[in-house]
């Protein structure tokens, strides 16, 4: 019995030690922004509620956002965007899960320009994507990140009614950024 207790203690201490040296960075206050450039109308939607995780040891990158937190500056447009296009009652979240194509150096002096490959999901549709990103270790406990990429609404079965074709662009420029803490 004493030996079993010792093994349990050793396992517990080993788990604590692994967690102490794990390189997992998280944020709940990252920024997400989309830019819609249509012929007759250009607008931006933003949210400061981007959740993200980078697990260096597992080469895991995961970001998600509650689409109900996106705001364009016009409440009626926000309501139509959520109800008619994004259908947030049915599909409230957008998520990207992937891994670095080449693991960044996480250097405090330089930004690492990398590509992240994985699955982007919005409106219930998942699609394999490769997106560029910039990552920099800003301190021993923080990583700064930014990524800019384009999504086509039709790729994710988000319809654009013909009447508002000139007000809503088929391609949306998406930018995510923030600071992840260890």
Automatic annotation (TrEMBL):
Pfam families associated with the record: YceI
* KW Signal (keyword) present: yes
UniProt keywords (A-Z) are: Signal
Q: Which SMART domains match?
A: YceI
Which InterPro entries does the record match to this protein? Answer: Lipid/polyisoprenoid-bd_YceI (IPR007372), TTHA0802/YceI-like_sf (IPR036761)
Q: Does the keyword Signal apply?
A: yes
Highest taxon above the source species: Bacteria
Sequence ranges assigned to domain Lipid/polyisoprenoid-binding YceI-like in this UniProt record = 24-181
Instruction: Using the record, list the residue span of the signal peptide; answer none if the entry has no such feature.
Output: 1-22
Protein's UniProt name: YceI family protein
- UniProt organism field: Belliella kenyensis
């Amino acid at each position: 019995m004493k030996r079993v207790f010792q093994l349990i203690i050793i396992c517990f201490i080993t788990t604590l030690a692994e967690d102490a040296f794990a390189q997992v960075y998280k944020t709940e206050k990252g920024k997400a922004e989309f830019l819609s450039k249509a012929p007759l109308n250009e607008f931006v939607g933003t949210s400061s509620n981007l959740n993200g995780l980078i697990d260096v040891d597992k080469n895991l990158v995961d970001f998600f956002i509650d689409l109900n937190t996106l705001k364009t500056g016009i409440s009626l447009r926000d309501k139509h965007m959520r109800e008619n296009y994004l259908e947030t009652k049915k599909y409230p979240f957008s998520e990207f899960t992937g891994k670095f194509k080449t693991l960044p150096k996480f250097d405090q002096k330089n930004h690492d320009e990398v590509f992240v490959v994985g699955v982007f999901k919005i409106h219930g549709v998942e699609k394999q994507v490769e997106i560029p990103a910039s990552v920099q270790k800003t301190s021993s406990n923080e990583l700064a990140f930014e990524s800019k990429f384009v999504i086509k609404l039709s790729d994710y079965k988000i319809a654009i009614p013909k009447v508002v074709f000139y007000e809503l662009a088929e391609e949306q420029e998406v930018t995510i950024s923030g600071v992840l803490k260890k």
